[in-house]
Amino acid sequence: MSSIQYTKKIALIDCNSFYVSCERLFNPKIRKKPVVVLSNNDGCIVSRSNEAKALGIKMGEPYFKAKDIIIKNNVQVFSSNYSLYGDLSRRVMRTLKRFNADIEVYSIDEAFMDLSNFSDDEVLNVGQEIRSTVLQWTGIPTSIGIAKTKTLSKVANHIAKKKKSGVTNFIGVENIDPLLEKVDINDVWGVGRQLTKFYHKNGIYNAKQLKNKSNTWIKKNSNVLGSRTAMELRGISCIDLEKTESKRKSCVVSRSFGQRIEKYQELREAVASYCLNASEKIRSESLIAKSITVFIRTSPFQSRFGYYSNSKTVDFPIATNNSIEIVKTALTTLESIFKNGYRYQKAGVILSNLSESANGKNLFSSEKDEKISCLMRSIDNTNYRYGRSSISLASAGVQKRWNMKREYSSKIDTSDFYCLPKIMT
DNA sequence: TCTGGGGTCCTAGGACCC
DNA sequence: TCTGGGGTCCTAGGACCC
After folding, report:
1. What is the pLDDT of residues A261-295, one digit of tens each?
2. How far apart are the first and last CA of chain A?
3. Is residue A329 within 8 Å of residue A289, measured between CB atoms?
4. Tens digit of pLDDT for each residue in A338-353?
5. Which residue has the closest alpha carbon to B3 C1'?
6. Is any atom of nucleic acid chain B found less than 7 Å from the CB of residue A47?
7. What's phi and psi for A19, nearest 5 deg?
8. CB-based contact A346:A259 (threshold 8 Å)
9. Of A88, A95, A327, A380, which is the most exposed, with the fewest CB atoms less than 10 Å away?
10. A112 touches strand C (CB under 7 A)
11. Any idea which nucleotide's C1' is nearest the CA of A195?
12. Quick check: A131 and A156 in contact, CB under 8 A?
């Protein structure tokens, strides 16, 4: 009889084809059919059902390039609906927290969970229970990988995705080398395009080969992140779970336009409108920004019209989250980088150097500031109640020809009363 | 015709100081 | 007027993630 083993165990729970699964939840007719979800502006394919993957449709592929396959195979297409996905994501995470409140929500569709409290023998069953509970309570299918480190749990998850049971456990497995050997180097967490190129050049094609490469070699030839990945593959934990939600350090709002913009005035409207969005976001998290970056660019794919891309960062005299001031600063910044005669494709603003607002007060606070923060609060409340941009600034425009394309929206909004499905009697 | 958006972290190199 | 090198801090850009 062996004694009960309690080693470090990390689970990675990852929703399968998350956006597609969300759309399927409200549309049972597309359950067994090939389905894809498009990025903003209906630009790229960002989520694919297994049936769509089997047709050879690639992740991140531009929609227009895959259109032939899509039409020929009657693939169901959806514009992305982020308020729906966000809502369902919160339901999944809430369900996971029933098993362990200290999870790290890593992205909209995945979370790390510490399972060290369970014995080595129990952990596979726990994984299966998590999976079936999430499926039953939210309708979202998941895959779960369990291992000693985050990187290994990612690998295990990768394998679990291809299994019917949906759970892969490395804990207690004597030798995982034969499994690692089957994992391409570019499927390892932390190895992107550039590193893949570099590793290939040096004869490293799979996870096992990276695991067995010496640390000094990796550190000398890439950087600390590379060697950390290798250590984690060896089962030595270098990346901790981040259980507390840390405050973000920057806030980006940027969009590609529905159609190309040439007029300065329209660019101004777009930038102003992104500023309103961004400042509302940071206000809702009680943050203030010390600096702002404005950037504009033409399409990098249409050089025949000439390419222009520029950005500029400026500091506010005093950190702020005041929409009016942020818009004003952004527009003067835009003026300094705008060049006539280009077909602009995208613009954005980045609020950075964020910190917690001390209730809007500073050394120079005045009665005027009080009034402004009061005004911001009422704008936020109104927009929350009656929909975003019920109240806006004139500079953000009314026509908005530059707004995104969303031709295939499912129009499901779990947070909007008017979008509830109707049942006819 | 049509190619996403929002983050974090690391590093090289410049500016500045002594 | 000539000239050195080392340390720190900041920033832009790149790589990575989903």
Report:
1. 999 999 999 999 999 999 999 999 999 999 999 99
2. 64
3. no
4. 999 999 999 999 999 9
5. A62
6. no
7. -65, -40
8. no
9. A380
10. no
11. C15
12. no
